[in-house]
Specification:
This protein is an alpha+beta fold. It is 19% helix and 35% strand. The chain has one domain. The strands form two sheets. Strands 1-2-3 form a three-stranded antiparallel β-sheet, with helices on one face. It has a two-stranded antiparallel sheet with strand order 4-5. The radius of gyration is 14 Å and the shape is globular. 4% of the residues are buried.
Length: 78
């Protein structure tokens, strides 16, 4: 039963998930459903094979209520 729910969840992520790209080199890392709730970021159903690192992106104007985040991986993580 667990395998059935997992496979259905992966299918849903592949259909409605957002494409995650590395902001440093533009490489496709995988797909996931990203939910921001209560000041936290929830990444659900990530389909990539590398660990994600979240990084703050530079902004022209400092606004803490709407910060820009980028995803990347470690250099030696392949």
């Amino acid at each position: 039963m667990k395998k059935l729910f997992r496979s259905l969840g992966i299918i849903v992520v592949k259909i409605v998930g957002r494409k995650i790209t590395d902001y440093k080199n533009g490489e496709h890392l995988g797909k996931a459903i990203i939910i921001v709730w209560g000041g936290k970021i929830h990444i659900i159903g990530y389909t990539g094979h590398r660990c994600l690192l979240v990084d703050w992106l530079p902004q022209e104007e400092l606004t803490y209520w709407r910060a820009r985040l980028g995803f990347t991986t470690r250099n030696n993580d392949k």
